[in-house]
Amino acid sequence: MKTELKEKYGLITAIAMVVGIVIGSGVFFKAEKVLNATGGNLPLGILAWVIGGLIMIACAYTFAVMATRYQYVNGIVDYAEATMGSTYGYYVGWFMALIYYPTLTSVLAWVSARYTCVLFGFDIVGGPCMTMACFFLIASYALNTLSPVLSGKFQVSTTVIKLIPLFLMAVIGTIVGLKTGMTAQNFTNVVTEVNQSHALFTAVVATAFAYEGWIVATSINAELKDSKKNLPIALVCGTFIIMAVYILYYVGLAGAVTNKVMMAGGEAGAKLAFETLFTNVGGTLIFVFVIISCLGTLNGLMLGCSRGIYSIASRNEGPHPEVFGQVDKVTNMPTNSSVLGVLLCAGWLLYFYGANLADPKWFGFFCFDSSELPIVSIYALYVPIFLMMIKKETDLSAFKRFLMPILAIIGCVFMIVAACFSHGIAVVAYLIVFAIIMLIGAVLNKKK
Fold first, then answer.
1. Using an 8 Å Cβ cutoff, are 66 and 285 in contact?
2. Residue 373 needs a FRET pair 20 to 30 A away by CA distance; which of 137, 198, 278, 428 works?
3. 413-427 confidence digits (pLDDT tens)
4. In this predicted structure, what is the pLDDT of residue 4?
5. What is the mean pLDDT of residues 189-217?
6. Could you tell me which residue, 92 or 315, shows the higher pLDDT?
7. Dist. CA 358–CA 108, nearest whole Å
8. How far apart are CA 201 and CA 342, in angstroms?
9. Contact residues for 89 (Cβ-Cβ < 8 A; gap 6+)
10. What is the mean pLDDT of residues 338-363?
11. How wide is the angle at C-alpha 79 spanned by C-alphas 75 and 83, nearest 5°?
12. Torsion sign across C-alpha atoms 423, 429, 435, 437
């Protein structure tokens, strides 16, 4: 007998879930890069956060409309399959399992380790940092695989904790900065002159990492009261709140330390900003919250990694679906899928170090930023889905059928163009690797 999901969430809960899913480590990790990309030009950096946020909002609204059309469809793979067919859905799922989840999970393990090293004064590039990154990766895997219930409780706890440093820096940093004149100084002084159009492209692509995750929120549509009305509202309101929080945090940092110090210090600059506002003890404690936030995001991504190849196998597709589709009777976890997931994370972590941190770089021409380009790929994969929605959903209003999907497509194309300007020839290297992995997926697909 099939168990139906009950409509149990109200609008406020749905908005809170959207905010909780998206807000994570990205704003801590990328705020410094946005500042460096724009040469310390604070208004230009804020514009980048606004553009990235508006692209997210347009895409989120369009998917929200789609979710109400396919009431029990969950996740990007199912949306791809519903609009473009099972073959396209398979390749999107293969991309998510082999590239998207493991690349971002490996980067989050490194980010968590890097902030921890800053806290304890360890080397943030070499052996100690990478050793800690491996430890966090394995610990997250163990938590998700051996105790899914404990993993879920940890996720809920970190959702609350990660809002604390953002809120405190946004409010206190802005107030103090306005009082001391630090904010005005940072807004009116540029550290380094840069090509503004190129800098804006680079900064917008950096914000994509911080804004990623909203697509997961569409999966609650079957459990949301009056979902046709409330899901679009929840996604739009939630994404607006996220954009506002990120911008206020960014401005709050400018009220604590100079742009030059923040650009030079990176993660240490963020720690200094917290210590400047809240004394050494208070700043250190809040910085611990930042690390916990990063670990919470890592835990959520590892959840996706552990189910990556399982989501394909459950459709009787991909390599050995009879193996990767198995679910452990005790833990109710897809054990074989999760083992492959953590191995892929380890491989991508090794690649991230060799391509971005090692000196000299290990992979020559094939070095690219695995924290950003996979996210841009997602925006590229959205475009056919939006186009097919415009073609198929003939009974929607012009606003829902044409205006918002077209704005979302424009946003996706902007992100793709921005990535080309930002990463240059590295985009070609990434596309070659992407094509090879997709080809392997085609060869190994054993759909029956």
1. no
2. 137
3. 999 999 999 899 999
4. 47
5. 84
6. 92
7. 18
8. 33
9. 77, 78, 80, 81, 82, 315
10. 91
11. 175
12. negative
Amino acid code (one letter) for 184: A
Tell me how far apart the alpha carbons of residues 125 and 243 are, in angstroms, rounded to a whole number: 30
- Residues 37, 327: Cα–Cα separation, whole Å: 45
Per-residue pLDDT of 268-289, as tens digits, reads 677 788 888 888 888 788 888 8
Answer for the pair 96, 77: CB distance below 8 angstroms, yes or no: yes
Contact partners, residue 67, CB within 8 Å, separation at least 6: 73, 79, 218, 221, 227, 231
CA 163 to each of CA 8, 249, 254, 266, 353: distance values in angstroms, whole numbers, following the listed order: 25, 11, 19, 20, 29
Cβ atoms 147, 309 nearer than 8 A: no
Q: For position 289, what pLDDT does the model report? A: 82
* Helix, strand or coil, per DSSP, at residue 356: helix
pLDDT surpasses 60 at 383: yes
Place of tokens 């604070």: 42
According to CATH, what is the number of the domain 11-444?
1.20.1740.10
The model carries a pTM of 0.86
pLDDT exceeds 80 at position 42: yes
Spell out the residues 6+ positions from residue 46 whose beta carbon is closer than 8 angstroms to its own: 247, 250, 251
Per the CB < 8 A criterion, the answer to whether 259 and 191 are in contact is: yes
What would the two tokens of residue 75 be?
């996740």
Rounded CA separation 264/92 (Å): 39
pLDDT of residue 127: 80
d(CA 349, CA 281): 32
Q: Where exactly are the structural domains of the chain? A: 11-444
- Nearest Cα neighbor of 204 from 25, 445, 413 is 413
What is the per-residue burial (b if ≥16 Cβ within 10 Å, else e) of 378-414?
A: bbebbeebbebbeeebeebeeebbeebbebbbebbeb
Write the CB contacts of 16 (distance below 8 Å, at least 6 apart in sequence): 238
